[in-house]
């Protein structure tokens, strides 16, 4: 049963074509729990937990094994802990079921799982790659109502159908007839959201003004060419010449935005003196040839604080004092003034040290594939203003966070610009999943997406989540596209993951009630 659940989940997850299996993959997990709940064997609870943990471990392994290409230590930690968190959610269901009954337990399971996903989007060990609602990324026409619920609405849909199917499976297993109303309710639960979504999809008209944009995919190998010290390092000025050449191949006088990928310039720019760098001057010369154009590019930057640290991520060198390093989006707009945005959703372990007071000394002794001490980040979601429109600079990992992306839009962004470097994962499902998830961000915010990857998949996505153009992996190319920049705000943009907040609240109440009920029995 554990292997069956894992294989069903793997076959259902992007970029495999069997998405409807999401509606049944949880049934074997519930069947395992039920088997041991009715068993008289010793340590039935422990055995149930271990088999369920194995199911989630295999599911995580099959869908996200490719993380090991970028960081083996990080991949192992991710697999162990993410699977553990999922198994603990089911243990909470088991506890509640034992004290309140199966129906109440299944209701609680929905709250527990959604509450877990909400927590996983917002705490320091955040890894929401496998948020269940992301499973519909290849089919945005199925979930147009994400503009109200976000991806957690998809998670709710999946959980409810799995519970209905499990209840029918259990009745059939026990030799009981399945009530017709149960089958009708399950069918309605599948078809009604689909029907609503298809109606919204077919009736949706893109809003806003056209924006001509160019994205590039320079295809520089991060393992051998991209960074100082690699075997075939390409000097930064030569890399920039490639970026400019690719850009100008597609640019016209009407081009308003040009996107270069994450860490396009790994120079270590001092943000207090950006004009002192010849690479920045090289970019400004390119900008002056195209005065109507605004540029977003990824850089590595730093801020020097001096004698006193100003953040928990500050590091120290005798010559400069305390300073922070950032994975940065650099914007050069109409006034040619460099503006910086610091990536703020950081990969735990590889880019940030979660719970630094507790785990810092441990993680710093383990190579998780990142920068020692972690990158700095910022609190505000900065919107870059071009000549006519504002853009959201979404850097790599940030683009899998719906509510986080919505904060850019709430601050005035009219289009989403994703810059990334997906070459770390090589030619695996990693870069393909990452691209597909961007389609959900388009639906949630009703904003178009322009995406520039060093390599991976670059392209354009419209407000319905449809792919307008896309590149192929490991190709050097550039693309010009016209997308519709909109100013209207969706319910989800205004209210964020309200579904997750409600679920988390009810989860705590039901868990507390289960404890109290135990004491009163």
UniProtKB/TrEMBL annotation:
Alphabetical list of InterPro entries matching this protein: Apolipo_AcylTrfase (IPR004563), C-N_Hydrolase (IPR003010), C-N_Hydrolase_sf (IPR036526), LNT_N (IPR045378)
Membrane topology listed for this record: Multi-pass membrane protein
Coiled coil: none
Residue ranges crossing the lipid bilayer per the database entry: 20-37, 49-68, 74-93, 105-125, 145-169, 181-204, 498-516
Pfam families from the UniProt entry: CN_hydrolase, LNT_N
Biological process per Gene Ontology, one example term: lipoprotein biosynthetic process
Enzyme nomenclature, EC number: 2.3.1.269
Listed SUPFAM superfamilies: Carbon-nitrogen hydrolase
Subcellular location: Cell membrane
Biochemical pathway: Protein modification; lipoprotein biosynthesis (N-acyl transfer)
CN hydrolase domain: residues covered: 211-489
Coarse class of the protein's main subcellular location: membrane
Record key words, sorted: Acyltransferase, Cell membrane, Membrane, Transferase, Transmembrane, Transmembrane helix
Claim: Ribonucleoprotein is one of the keywords in the record: no
GO molecular function: N-acyltransferase activity
GO cellular component: plasma membrane
The UniProt record lists the keyword Transmembrane: yes
Family of this protein: Belongs to the CN hydrolase family. Apolipoprotein N-acyltransferase subfamily.
HAMAP family: Lnt
Physiological role: Catalyzes the phospholipid dependent N-acylation of the N-terminal cysteine of apolipoprotein, the last step in lipoprotein maturation.
Protein known as: Apolipoprotein N-acyltransferase
Gene: lnt
